[in-house]
Structures are given as C-alpha cells and as structure tokens.
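Fold this sequence, please.
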Amino acid sequence: MTISMIAAIGKNLELGKNNDLIWHFSADMKFFKNTTTGNTVVMGRKTFESLPHALPNRRNIVLTNNKDLKIDGVEICHTIDEVFELCKNDNVFIIGGGKIYSEFLNYSDKLILTEIDATCDDANVYFPHFDKELYEKEVIAENEEKGIKFEHVVYTKKK
C-alpha cells in the first residue's frame, strides 16, 4: 500500500472555508482527477458531503465516527486501521479534510500539493504543518490562473 495526501494549499496551509475549497482552478481540478483516477480516495464525511457525488472511477472510502452512516457506492470505515486493512494492496489518496490529513500525515509516503501563491484570511480548515526537511521536493508543473500562480509539487518522504 502506498499512501499519498493530495491537496491545494495557500501560503499559510489554507485548505478551505465553510466546507468548500478556497480556490477553484481548472488546471488543478484536472491534475487531481488525473492523479487519483483508478485509485482509492479516502476522505472524511464533511469532505464527502461537499462533493456532488462519489468520485467516479475511484474507490471511495469515507472515514467517520458515525456508526450509522451508509452511502450508496461508498465504503465506510470508522478507524484508520480499518482503512489500512481494506486498502492493503491499493494506491491510496487522502483527499481531506483537515482532520483526516492530520490523522494520516505520519503514515503518508508522499504529499502531492498544489502550492498556491496566495492567502485566505477567512479560511477555517488548514493542512497540517509538516517538516519539509523530512521530504524530497519535486516541482512537477507551474501554472497561473485568474492572476494567481501555483505549482504542483510532490514531497516524497526520505528513507
């Protein structure tokens, strides 16, 4: 199993506000789709609820404390260990939200981040702080949309 976290973050690690993404860039959405399609995505309940439906062409897993939650076409887990057991042969992408990113940070092999050259003062969800010294950094693409520059960056955990 490989575990990667994928997110778009601002200069201060901002992820979202009011259960929605802060920035919506077509190049980033395409990057996310191309990167995660054919793999397993793991998210929290609130992140799932922010989506219009389960993400197509991916195995969707929701990690939640709600023991009664049932969602058609989505597997439900209640612990990280359950996720590990279900996904032991998968390429897993953690897609949010903030609490789920924090819970999986120490288990992740890669952080695949869209680093946005902007800030959002009223963000209320953040990506967890991580020590960049523990990772090899590779910039794989640079873009600009709506006058805002951003880079797709892969941080691979050093062995």
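Residues 10 and 28 are 13 Å apart (CA to CA). The mean pLDDT is 96.
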